[in-house]
Amino acid sequence: MNHLKQIAAKLDEYGIDAMLVTSEPGEYYAIGFHGEGAVVVTREECRYFTDSRYIESAEKRVSGAAITMTTASAAQKPLVVKAVEELGIEKLGFEDGYMTVAEYNSYAEALPCTLVPAQKLVNSLRASKDQEEIALMQKAQEITDQTFEAILKLIQPGMTEREIAARLQYEMLCRGADKMSFDPIVVSGPNGSLPHGIPGDRKIQQGDFLTMDFGCKYGGYCSDMTRTIAIGAPTEEMRKVYDTVLKAQLAGIAAARAGVPGVEIHNAAAKVIEEAGYGAYFGHGFGHSVGIEIHESPNANSRDTTPMPVGAAVSAEPGIYLPGKFGVRIEDVLVYTEEGSVNLTKSPKELIVL
What we know:
The chain is an alpha+beta fold.
């Protein structure tokens, strides 16, 4: 899998002769491989430079690019310079969202061409997933759903947040995950009010809410889901908060479709939480794009006015967090269509009581 043709087709739109891709996610998107290398894409051809650690794998997995191994005497940057000279590149786009100032200065000094910020070129392509990308995300989500089903059979009072987080990772890896999308968030009881709390040594107890936010990578693409469950009978307040979050999520999902700005989708969910009296306790966005990275763009939040493209894969994750008491978050991943959205997440969302 690669997206070299798609990148090449965008060069005219951004007024550049070629695109230089050096970031890990950009490299993977461009050629379907990560080898800590550099990709130069022109309208007619692509050149890829990587070192001896990755050259054998690159030659097996990368198609549509001329592959050159870097060495001590033929380092990456001089090879990029040579390619620019040979291909007659005058304006070279670069990933200004990833390249450091030091890297930029080094390239600018060495290259006989103008460097043009062109992060938007790659971002605009990555924002809309094709069928091959969606299939990989579906597989990653299947692993995540299966892991949730498995963990429900293992959770019991006395287990620590840290133990549950470790088990989530083990179960996903055993089911075929390449690695985690991010470090799992497992928080219980009063720790649940921390949206990005770090799993610790607190033991889960009867009467707790337990929130688990986790996901894995498969074929380079992420899954992401959150479920909040009750350990023992929940209080009336806990049920009310849970029901409010679920209604908010469903309202956001109902508003989600291609062409709608992210802020409108967010506001549809936020309105439900506000009207229930919990507006002050929902501080983050309704969702973020997911793909090669766990946080991409565009986003469904209170600030993003970007209309969602067809094929956008965006989380749906409203939450309510009551300091010192508990928190609730429910998260799925949606793929946007012109008619609405397709939910990749199959795990149940009604309140589960263990």
